[in-house]
Amino acid sequence: MLRHPDGSSFRFDPGALCLELLPTGGPGPLAYFEVLHEPADLVRWAEESRLPDGLGPKAASGAGPGAGVRSGVGSGRGPALVVSAAEVADARALRDALWRLAEGHVAEVSPGPDDLATLNDAAAHPPLTARLTPDGNREWAPGGTGAGLLSTVARDAVDLFTGAYARRIRTCGAHGCRLLFVDTSRPGRRRWCSMERCGNRHKVRAHRARLTAVDE
Predict the structure, then answer these.
(1) pTM, 2 dp
(2) Rounded to an integer, what distance in angstroms lies between the CA atom of residue 33 and that of residue 143?
(3) Strands 2-3 and 9-10, how do they pair?
(4) Angle at 34 between CA 123 and CA 81, to 5 degrees
(5) Which of 13, 129, 131, 140 is nearest to 71 (CA)?
(6) Residue 47 and residue 10: Cα distance in Å, rounded?
(7) What span, in angstroms and rounded, lies between the C-alpha atoms of 42 and 146?
(8) Distance from first CA to last CA of the chain, Å, rounded?
(9) Beta carbons within 8 Å of 206's beta carbon, 6+ residues apart
(10) For 50-72, how does the pLDDT look when each residue is reduced to its tens digit (9 = 90+)?
(11) Across the strands, what pairs with 181?
């Protein structure tokens, strides 16, 4: 669920982990949407993302306020994710670089060297690690860091930009909406960030235009 600063919310599935980071803010006028202010914000984003559960406050068990969470309730094995203030700044830098890289990719513009360096530097860190428990369940290994989270995001971006869906990255077709998504539909005809929001608005405008044409 994507929450707008005006209080509204709507379902939005960008189709890729790296693109899920973009609506948290961005460069220039996108700073209006900024939500990554402190470590707890980045931990919350990780928990609400398409990553498997176990990284956020819902799994907390004695973790410090906002800085980290336990890999499982009562696991006693330490936090699954601990984020520092510096890593929140790194997350904002990676997100801003991803905005420019993704929009440039759609426009078929060569990526800037600084943004490439930001992405590749993030991807070079060890990613978050999952493991199998003795009872056959999945959990995050303790000791995950903000750098590991950003590495996981950056590696997802590398895979997206070079993979089978690289030509399916789209910008929402609505005027003024910059949200990006991967069109994973079979026919490849997705136009909107969300039918609930931009798609519905387009339908309403088109309907009103038809009524006006008939009246004339």
Answers:
(1) 0.84
(2) 30
(3) antiparallel
(4) 45
(5) 140
(6) 18
(7) 8
(8) 41
(9) none
(10) 999 999 755 544 444 444 533 33
(11) 170
